[in-house]
Amino acid sequence: MRNVLNLNKDWLFIKDESNISAQGGEAVNLPHSWNATDGQDGGNDYFRGTCLYKKTLKKADLPAAAKYFLEIRGANSSADVYVNGKALAHHDGGYSTWRVDLTDALTEENLLVIAVDNAPNETVYPQMADFTFYGGIYRDVNLICVAESHFDLSYYGGPGIKVTPEIVGKDAKVGVEVYLTNMKEGQTLTYTLYDKEENVVSTATTADTKTALDIADVHLWHGLKDPYLYCCEVELKEGDTVIDSVYTRFGCRTFQIDPDNGFILNGEEYPLRGVSRHQDRLGIGNALLPEHHKEDMDLICEMGATTIRLAHYQHDQYFYDLCDERGLVIWAEIPYISRHMPGGRENTISQMKELIVQNYNHPSIVVWGLSNEISIAGSDEDLLENHRILNDLVHEMDKTRKTTIAAVSMCKMDDPYLQIPDVVSYNHYFGWYGGDTTMNGPWFDKFHAMHPTIPIGCSEYGCEALNWHTSDPRQGDYTEEYQAYYHEELIKQLFTRKYMWATHVWNMFDFGADARAEGGENGQNHKGLITMDRKYKKDSFYAYKAWLRSPEEAPFVHLCGKRYIDRVEDVTKVTVYSNLPAVELFVNGESIGVKEAPDHFFYFDVKNEGETKIVAKAGEYTDEGVIRKVDEMNMDYVLVEKGAVLNWFDVEAPEGRFSLNDKLADIMKSKRGKLWFYGLGLKLYKKMNQSKKDEKDGKKSGGFDIDFKSGGIMEMMGGFTVLRLTTMVAMANISFTKEELLKMNRKLNKIKKPKNKK
């Protein structure tokens, strides 16, 4: 029988070393990442290179077996395996499971070395993206010990079993296919289906590697309401002796994605409203333990999401299992992201094959994502051909699911790229990266009218928030209050458009993006509804909970702004979220009224005198906080960029004249401002070219590539103040000196603001 030996303990780690004979090292256990700190602290300078993991294996300590396979469940991004100095295998792709046959290389005592490399290259995705590419062996490593005849361990890291249920009336016909190595004459396969209570539902014994079993009166997998799972076990037998076995859980369900009615599960409309998830954590990187995954799932379920986009790569098998168990509907994708690499086509194919083979049996998955924002610089023929190949590959490997893409805002509605997949979603940040919040819903209406047969969704939307606060929230201020306002508006626009097949907030959790230098805490993307350490739920989290959790299952009330205590105004706005129909607000013990809000967002005006205790009451549920009257703004609530050479309050801004504190879109309304704007674009383009030269010369690590010649990019940046843009472009390894910024501001001060026409 198969034995699986976990090898996570007692490795030696040697950083920045490719010579497998190197001595010394640090004792570590897996999972492990060498970028758990420097990949989250900003500066875009985290270590990217080759590191060694070394371990001694004594054959006498291993279970007796005919074959030994090393299983690596995640090593980012490329890796080589050596036993006793002999190179056995190479793998490209940092997010999938892969295995190596060690059998012939093993002696009595063995030195196992895994060289892992996350250095930049032009063939392995991802290479450009707004997240940290953590290096390391950050998931489990196992030794799988099997007989000469066994279920295949070399077929794209898969489980050796493929289950395809088909609903026929009230019953199901379950197709099962297994992959075998060295099956011998006289050996048989016993297929058994079990229900959730482990009762045998159906069984068959045959020598065929494909069969079909029936389930009478099938119990459907129905999302959050009823995530019912069956189990399929297949035993390889010689006589009555079981030589090897595999099993997998599966669910029986049907789904449709309709361009007018959205997602339909088992014949019922089932709106997909949820979040995207990055897997990393503060101080841990990608080296997560099962309890971390479970906590993430608990938080997502608490919010009431019905779907998760697992971005931008294959996630841990344990998390897919949790999605099956909890009933989340999943978008799974490969890291074909941001920049199309002509030399990376084979890697997109191999990563897609691994994603599908390893995850085919998960009922939670309904779409395979081909790419994300890959057309940011336009769609050339090589890019389009790569997508057609991937799309055809997916349909050949999996005839039960759909393909999708996440297109970037600048991708035009008539781009041929959009015609390739079965369904489409867009990443839009109107109200954060340009434009305003009101533009989101109408944009989707326009797309739906132009393409009435293409299901359209929103794969990313969001804005950043840290522990900054204001009573006058404005786009780009990074306050918790603006993030809450933004999501209130987006919820009302997106959730009420029935035709949208799925919406995914970017992001459920703050995540590592070492190139980022904004918001006052460098090295992170702070668009999460929850902080990166999972310790604080931002107010916007509760806005979603109010819409998505029913009052019957999880009644609650949430008082917003509890971190915003000191306030200068005489009357202040207080916001409350609840999924109950009415909220009463008490100020220092006295009721100031009851309000009803069909949109679940309740607003009150509260006198701000001295110290005030506020209690929000909905039904029998309460939440409370305190505000305090102050004469001057508490500067602890005001963003001061770390490492910034200028802040907004340092900028000279004469009345009636432009300054670095003005938005690019407003400056563009002036003829002189427009000329200045084009000059800025040219300056950024030149700095980008110098940055690329520095990268080639080894002076900088790779940054986020931004095409400043693109009209779409510059249009999107219209919502930025000039000062904010100059900090944002640090992601592209572009920096401005204080002198450059002051000179830029003096030029803007000479440009008059257009007078408003009455």
Please explain how this structure is put together:
The chain is of the alpha+beta class and 758 residues long. β30, α4 and β31 form a beta-alpha-beta unit. The protein is globular and about 90 Å long.
Integer count of domains:
5
CATH topology of the largest domain: TIM Barrel
Point out poorly predicted stretches: 708-712
Please tally the helical runs, counting DSSP H or I stretches of 4 or more residues.
12
The rounded distance between the terminal residues' Cα atoms is: 84 Å
Fraction of helical residues:
10-25%
Topology:
Elements: E1 3-6, E2 11-14, E3 26-28, E4 50-58, E5 67-72, E6 75-76, E7 78-83, E8 86-92, E9 98-101, E10 109-117, E11 136-137, E12 141-146, E13 150-151, E14 161-168, E15 171-178, E16 180-181, E17 187-194, E18 200-206, E19 210-215, E20 221-222, E21 226-227, E22 230-238, E23 241-250, E24 255-258, E25 262-265, E26 268-269, E27 273-277, H1 290-303, E28 307-310, H2 317-326, E29 329-333, H3 345-359, E30 365-372, H4 381-397, E31 402-408, E32 423-427, H5 440-450, E33 456-460, H6 480-494, E34 503-505, E35 511-512, E36 524-525, H7 539-548, E37 557-559, E38 566-567, E39 571-578, E40 582-587, E41 590-596, E42 601-607, E43 611-618, E44 621-629, H8 664-667, H9 671-696, H10 711-716, H11 722-728, H12 738-749
Parallel strand pairs: 27-28, 27-34, 28-29, 29-30, 30-31, 31-32, 32-33, 38-44
Antiparallel strand pairs: 1-12, 2-3, 2-4, 4-10, 5-9, 5-12, 6-11, 7-8, 7-10, 13-16, 14-15, 15-19, 17-18, 17-22, 20-21, 22-23, 24-25, 25-26, 35-36, 37-39, 39-42, 40-41, 40-43, 43-44
Helix pairs in contact: 1-2, 3-4, 6-7
